[in-house]
Amino acid sequence: MSNTIQNTVQSSYSNIDDIQFSTSDEQIFIKSPIDNVNDNINVEGMSLTTTRIYSDDAFRNLYSLSKSNLYGMSYYKKTQKWIGHITDIYVDSFKAKLTDLTSPGTYEIDEFDLEEITDEDKPLLSLGATFYWSVGYSTSENGQVTKESLIRFQRIVEFTDEDNSEALDRASHLISTLKWE
Amino acid sequence: MNLAEITLIGTGGYGECVLINLGNDNWIIVDSCINPEIGVPQSTEYLESINVDLKNVKLIVCTHWHDDHILGISQALEKCSQAKLSFSKAHDKQKFLYFLSFDYQKKNVEKINSSTFEFNKCIDIIDERNSSLISAVENKCILNIPVGEFRNQIISLSPSDYTMEKFDHEISSLITEYGQPNKKMPTDSPNAKSVALFLKIGHHRAILGADLEVSLHPKEGWKNIVTNNNLIDKKSSLFKIPHHGSENGFCGQVWDLLLEEQPIAKITPWNRGNGLPQLGMLKKYSSLTDKLFMTAAVFGKQPKKRDKQIEKFLKKIGHNPEEVKFKKGVITCKIDMDDPNAKWEVTLVENSLKIEIEID
User: Fold this and answer.
1) Which of A4, B49, B150, B296 has the most other CB atoms within 10 Å of its CB?
2) For residue B126, which of A101, A55, A174 has the smallest C-alpha distance?
3) Per-residue pLDDT tens over the stretch B339-348
4) How far apart, in whole angstroms, are the C-alpha atoms of residue A60 and residue B89?
5) pLDDT of residue B246
6) Three-class SS state of A134
7) pLDDT below 50 — which residues of chain B?
8) Contact, B138 vs B158, CB < 8 A?
């Protein structure tokens, strides 16, 4: 990752004590010890979107920055993002409750064609499933403007051992301490 | 004069709540709702606006554990330091608490994926306070307060034992289907687990219907209450109509056997899908009482206002997300509990309105 990107990300998270950068072929991971992480950071005119992945022992949250945003020859302007939860599934479409991540407040309901989902994501389609939806305009290096609507399903499938232990411990504690009338 | 009060606050899609003054400033909060723009619980905002000391809130009743029904309830409980908490719990406490704890863990991944975040926070608060939980089941007095010559009471009419036995089995399915951290439990409403309440206030009676439905099984929902209740001693003059006036929430026997003629009837609308109440049900309720009130009209859905280019783009790709607007309405009803002939005085605030429909 370029120093410029690292420095910009570091300064965007200036209230965080420690950020670790690691790279893989697909994504750049930022481990952050706190919950509040900027969703949008402008680096060299490119907008980086973050997706919280999971929590681990050392840090609360692991965020990924999409490589296509960082290294792709495009940057986004005027994006609108939601997190959606599927409420109804039909033959060719599904309905979802949408929580606005760009301007938080009221929620929305919308219907999506199944064709809007990638083949990789289709197996994740089920009632209650979580997805991220972003729409916006991207401009390539050569000035080409493309409108994009991206739907990505959340891929976390398992709680960590620590999560399981925490849940069991809490339940056991409550069973023994809560008083019922 | 000893004034009692039952105030209903509706929001159109962000929960609802009822504030009850049982007399001598003994307050009860039932459920919760918020203004989504600022996240403030409407219950405590209302009480503070009429200069009620929140220490006088004796009880908070949670009629349903799903977040959509009780937005902001944990904040309200935090502010009401003397309040106990009441809700319907499963018979199998252990399984129920495991279920809640696992759903709560989703907050470590994506807080919004938990459907019981508010409810779990309430449990944490009660645990920290070393306070008691009051389980709400059929035919149980959950609060008893002496006021003058009266013993004013809050009585839970539901859920039935049969319903809660069924819920014990349902918990296992819920964990299997929605236990993964990337899945959110959908709201299951209307349902038989909802806590309906019967209020005894001096000479007067009221029923708060929550989201309770009419079930096929006689030991569930309104049929069970009509048949098997043993604590309803008198007909009620005020009725909070269940489940936003839906067909599933309507039980003719409730109107025949448990309500006075022409009671005060209050509805909170639901502005999702085709909206509730539907016109047919409004006509039905209007034929049963001429004192029908709603916290707001059911209104058409509009897209949310946002950047013009994004709006254009959404239209172009065939998307038109419908905004569930926050529309607050308050219906306040007060009555002199000492006077058996007193009538409820109704005050309508913000978007609330009286329904007057011509019956064919």
Assistant:
1) B296
2) A174
3) 999 999 999 9
4) 32
5) 93
6) strand
7) none
8) yes
Alpha helices in chain B (DSSP H): 42-49, 73-79, 93-105, 117-129, 161-178, 221-228, 252-253, 279-288, 308-316
The ipTM estimated for the assembled molecules is 0.87
> From the candidates A81, A89, A108, A113, which should be mutated to test the interface with B, based on the most B CB atoms within 10 A?
A108
- Kindly report the number of other CB atoms within 10 A of residue B321's CB atom: 22
Question: By three-state DSSP, how is residue B310 classified?
Answer: helix
Cα atoms in the Cβ-side hemisphere of radius 13 Å centred on A59: 21
pLDDT digits (tens, 9 = 90+) for B110-158: 788 888 899 999 999 999 999 989 999 999 999 999 999 999 999 999 9
Q: For residues B249-273, b (16+ Cβ closer than 10 Å) or e, as one string?
A: bbbeebbeebbbeebbbbbbbbbbe
Residues whose CB is less than 8 angstroms from the CB of residue A143 and which lie 6 or more positions away in sequence, other chains included: none
User: For residues B125 and B119, what is the distance between their CA atoms, to the nearest angstrom?
Assistant: 10
Nearest to B9 by CA among B43, B37, B36, B40: B43
Q: Which residues of A touch B183 (CB under 8 A)?
A: 126, 128-130
Cβ neighbours of B101 in A, within 8 Å? 166-168, 170-171, 174
Beginning with the edge strand found earlier in the chain, give each strand of the sheet holding B322-323 in spatial order: A145-153, A130-140, A74-89, A93-100, A107-113, B322-323
Residue range B274-285, pLDDT digits in tens: 788 999 999 999
Amino acid at B26: N
C-alpha span between B152 and B99 (Å, rounded): 35
| DSSP code per residue over B95-145 | HHHHHHHHHHHGGGT-GGG-SSHHHHHHHHHHHHHT-EEEE--TTEEEEEE
Distance of CA A92 to the CA centre of its chain: 26
Instruction: Please check whether residue A97 is in contact with residue A109, taking contact to mean a CB–CB distance below 8 angstroms.
Output: yes
Largest Cα separation within chain B, whole Å, is 68
Model pLDDT for residues A118-134, shown as the tens digit of each residue = 998 999 999 999 999 99
Q: What are residue B54's phi and psi, to 5 degrees?
A: -65, -15
B242 touches B278 (CB < 8 A): no
Q: Using CB atoms within 10 A of its CB, is residue B208 exposed (0-12), middle (13-18) or buried (19+)?
A: buried
Cβ of A158 and B180 within 8 Å? yes
Min CA distance, B269 vs chain A (Å)?
A: 16
- Mark yes or no for CB contact A102/B304 under 8 Å: no
A167 in contact with chain B, both atoms CB, cutoff 8 A:
yes
Whether the Cβ atoms of residue B85 and residue B62 lie closer than 8 Å to each other: yes
